[in-house]
Amino acid sequence: MKVFFLKTNNVCGPTRLGRTWTDTSLVSCGLKCRRMFSSDCSSFMFHKVTKLCTPGGRLSSLHPIPAVHEGELYILMSDDLNDKFSFVSFNNTTVQLFYFKTEVNYRQALEICRCFDSTLNVAKTNDKYQLFASLVKETKHDTWIGLNDIESEGHFVWVDDKQEYNTSISPSYFQGDQPDNYNNNEDCVMMRWSNLQLNDERCDKTFYFICQKP
């Protein structure tokens, strides 16, 4: 089993899974957390002096940040990840991104990005869109983008500044029959890796996501 750890800042806290123990190392703590709680263990805290291991779930700004005795907070992933935000360039555009290759719903993606002092990826220019598309094409996974019409149906806004996206622009980033708000229940936007175009989807579906530094 491949497990990767990513140390977070102390902006957010995890849900506590209700049990703690002392462990031999950071790696052992993370591995045992995943073995015991399976995918419910998506984060953990480890104190390097006392060796206290505290398993955790999803991060949220609504949960208490790690207390001093709990140690430092880590995200636990089971896929290949860089250990930091990376600068990625396309033509004359350079952005600092972190591609999370794990599937979460839209609100979870927003919250995790917020916990890293970043936002869900936005692509307001063609260069940024093409950069985003190249990453999605490489992973071959549908991926959330920081665009939604949660607050007002049909009025899609970017998550970083609430700037409205004009769905009638030409060329549009949406695929031909989208957005369609199927069953009146599609408010969040993702990119399909098969055609690298946007589609509105149910916010409770799960996809990969990219966080972007300001």
UniProtKB/TrEMBL annotation:
<dbReference type="InterPro" id="IPR018378">
    <property type="entry name" value="C-type_lectin_CS"/>
</dbReference>
<keyword id="KW-1015">Disulfide bond</keyword>
<feature type="domain" description="C-type lectin">
    <location>
        <begin position="98"/>
        <end position="212"/>
    </location>
</feature>
<dbReference type="InterPro" id="IPR001304">
    <property type="entry name" value="C-type_lectin-like"/>
</dbReference>
<protein>
    <recommendedName>
        <fullName>C-type lectin domain-containing protein</fullName>
    </recommendedName>
</protein>
<dbReference type="InterPro" id="IPR016186">
    <property type="entry name" value="C-type_lectin-like/link_sf"/>
</dbReference>
<dbReference type="InterPro" id="IPR016187">
    <property type="entry name" value="CTDL_fold"/>
</dbReference>
<dbReference type="Pfam" id="PF00059">
    <property type="entry name" value="Lectin_C"/>
</dbReference>
<dbReference type="InterPro" id="IPR050801">
    <property type="entry name" value="Ca-Dep_Lectins_ImmuneDev"/>
</dbReference>
